[in-house]
Amino acid sequence: MTVDEYNSAVADYADNIYRFVLKHLKNIDAARDVVQDTFEKVWLKKENIDGQKVKSYLFTTAYNRLIDVVRKEKFQVGEENIDYVKHADPIKNMDLQSILNEALDQLPAIQKTVILLRDYEGYDYSEIGNITDLKESQVKVYIFRGRKKLKEILVSVEAVLEK
């Protein structure tokens, strides 16, 4: 990969990677750090990366870094990690996007990841498999199960909101 291809990749994919990571972490600073680490790793290995496959490489690197951050956060328990929104009053006057985000947060991490890559970022099944190190059939199963669970969650929220 050339320097121009790298600069083009930064311009083309930085926002997409940031959105993807932010959906998982819900922390602006941590998401920025993951994006920066991702592009740093790509820069250090730019000679070994095909410019045509940089998008997949970037998302794979970001996903792996994201997993590292999530694992690290599991061991850090403190008041700053408590989600007070979840402990507040039941759902009242929430907009559709926040309801969807709450539903996504209830999914297992792998289901959330494949759904975000498929429905938010527009990747096909084989690309998602490459990013997450899953077989294409596994990706389809996780997407199916995740969407099914989302439907169950959203239907129950809809019933609560109608009352």
UniProtKB/TrEMBL annotation:
Q: Does the keyword Isomerase apply?
A: no
NCBIfam families in UniProt: sigma70-ECF
Q: Which domain of life is it from?
A: Bacteria
What is a single molecular function from GO for this protein?
DNA binding
Q: Which UniProt keywords apply?
A: DNA-binding, Sigma factor, Transcription, Transcription regulation
> Which residue spans traverse the membrane?
none
UniProt KW DNA-binding keyword? yes
The Swiss-Prot or TrEMBL record describes its family as follows: Belongs to the sigma-70 factor family. ECF subfamily.
Q: Which InterPro entries does the UniProt record give?
A: RNA_pol_sigma-70-like (IPR039425), RNA_pol_sigma-70_dom (IPR014284), RNA_pol_sigma70_r2 (IPR007627), RNA_pol_sigma70_r4_t2 (IPR013249), RNA_pol_sigma_r2 (IPR013325), RNA_pol_sigma_r3/r4-like (IPR013324), WH-like_DNA-bd_sf (IPR036388)
SUPFAM superfamilies per UniProt? Sigma2 domain of RNA polymerase sigma factors, Sigma3 and sigma4 domains of RNA polymerase sigma factors
The record, for Pfam families, names: Sigma70_r2, Sigma70_r4_2
Q: Which residues form the RNA polymerase sigma-70 region domain?
A: 10-74
User: What lineage is on file?
Assistant: Bacteria, Pseudomonadati, Bacteroidota, Flavobacteriia, Flavobacteriales
What protein name is recorded for this chain? RNA polymerase sigma factor
Where the record annotates domain RNA polymerase sigma factor 70 region 4 type, the positions are 100-150
The GO annotation for biological process reads: DNA-templated transcription initiation
